[in-house]
Design goal:
With about 400 residues, this protein is of the alpha/beta class. Helix content is about 35%, strand content about 20%. The chain has 13 helices and 17 strands. Strand 2 and strand 3 form a beta hairpin. Helix 7 (about 225-235) runs parallel beside helix 8 (about 245-255). It is globular.
Length: about 400
């Protein structure tokens, strides 16, 4: 059965707009898209070949893609502590609920970059089988860190080239779609600093090699300059966070085609809520210390033309699952146009994840992951942050 979404403003995720326009869905895929005067509505009405939804005054855009979430983390003041002490079975049940909430918000694809006990992979497989609703998921399994490194409480500690190589192979054996490694310290682990390098260049290179041999991507938590440099030289596909980017490291990323996933919301939320919310003082101190440099680094990368893909780090303190579009508002606040922000969360995110042949744009042959909004996010990006403005979400052509 065909479904025609007619007479809407269509934002295709590639930078083009059709107004008014239409999108034709058949068998879960986009079968047609075009301007209003070429709509197949009259023919469909005449032959009864499908259903028509009139979306006058509405906007259609591709489902959003969040390239950095942690479904195991609950957005509490100290979520790593919570995840480390919670039984994996209970975590998986909670993750399923968070996945459903994320999908309802218009995020139809996520990349989970680290959990305990391979729970995200189990949730991913449950979604793929149709057992539970949720966004399309790509998963890292355990994050790989040095002994005592950032994220150790829910990660896989590994030391030396052979140790990291083995850890990467373990993740791939478990079904990971991406290998995640920790090139630096971070905010939410006590006793480590965001600017400090952790896994070495040689260790990172070993993990990247294993991922790429298996046809998978590799991502690096990399906040300090030395760790960013090591990750890029190792051949990483994406730098996550990038607090202390320099002209040199930005140039290296441009030369090698390395993506940046800035996760601006995560740091801003910790600094804004502060210790009075229950966030540990050491975490707030680190967030306050890096905030200005983080935003300047994002601006430097954007102005230089680095490929930026949207990611939120959802699950970190007060960074709720289902409120992922807050990151888009922050991208725009810090200088990105509304259209470019949407591209970062659609076609460019799909390119980073290696799934651009299937999702990320409203193009014939792509999976029909779509959002219908009551407002126009090209005029006001915060439309995507308002649950009341998300009129409907389609995943593979089915209303969620």
């Amino acid at each position: 059965m065909k479904l025609l979404l007619d007479n809407a403003k269509v934002i295709d995720g590639l930078g083009a707009v059709i107004a008014p326009g239409w999108v034709l869905v058949e068998d879960g895929k986009i079968a047609g898209v075009g301007p209003g005067d070429a709509s197949p509505r009259a023919q469909m009405d005449a032959d009864g070949s499908g259903s028509v939804v009139d979306l006058t005054g509405k906007t259609i855009l591709p489902g959003l893609i969040d390239c950095h979430v942690h479904l195991m983390l609950d957005a509490s003041p100290d979520p790593l502590k919570q995840a480390a002490t919670e039984r994996v079975g209970l975590s998986a049940l909670k993750m399923a609920l968070r996945a459903q909430r994320t999908l309802k918000s218009g995020v139809t694809t996520v990349r989970d970059l680290g959990c305990k006990g391979f729970a995200a992979i189990e949730v991913r497989d449950a979604v793929r089988s149709g057992l539970i609703p949720g966004p399309r998921m790509l998963c890292a399994g355990h994050l790989i860190c040095m002994t005592g490194g950032h994220g150790w409480s829910i990660g896989r500690e590994a030391d030396g080239v052979d140790g990291v190589r083995r850890a990467a192979r373990e993740q791939l054996k478990a079904g990971a779609d991406v290998v995640k490694m920790m090139a630096t310290g971070g905010i939410l682990t006590p006793g480590v600093q965001p600017g400090a390098a952790q896994l070495t260049l040689e260790e990172l290179r070993a993990g990247v090699e294993e991922a790429h041999k298996a046809g998978r991507k590799a991502a690096a938590h990399a906040q300090g300059t030395e760790g960013i440099r090591n990750a890029v030289l190792a051949g990483i596909d994406s730098v996550e966070h990038g607090f202390y980017l320099t002209e040199e490291t930005v140039g290296m990323m441009l030369e090698r085609g390395t993506y940046l996933v800035p996760t601006l919301t995560a740091v801003r939320a910790i600094a804004r809520h502060g210790t009075e919310s229950g966030i540990p003082p050491w975490a707030v101190e680190k967030a306050m210390a890096v905030g200005e440099a983080h935003e300047k680094s994002f601006a430097r990368a954007m102005e230089a033309g680095v490929s930026i893909a949207m990611g939120t780090d959802a699950g970190t303190p007060f960074n709720e699952h289902g409120q992922n579009a807050q990151e888009l508002a922050l991208l725009v606040e810090l200088g990105m146009s509304e259209g470019e922000a949407i591209v970062s969360a659609t076609s460019r995110a799909a390119e980073l994840l290696g799934i651009a042949d299937a999702v990320g744009s409203i193009s014939v042959g792509k999976v029909a992951d779509l959002i219908v909004t009551s407002g126009d996010p090209l005029r006001d990006i915060t439309v995507l942050c308002d649950p009341a403005a998300i009129e409907s979400v389609y995943q593979a052509g089915k209303l969620c």
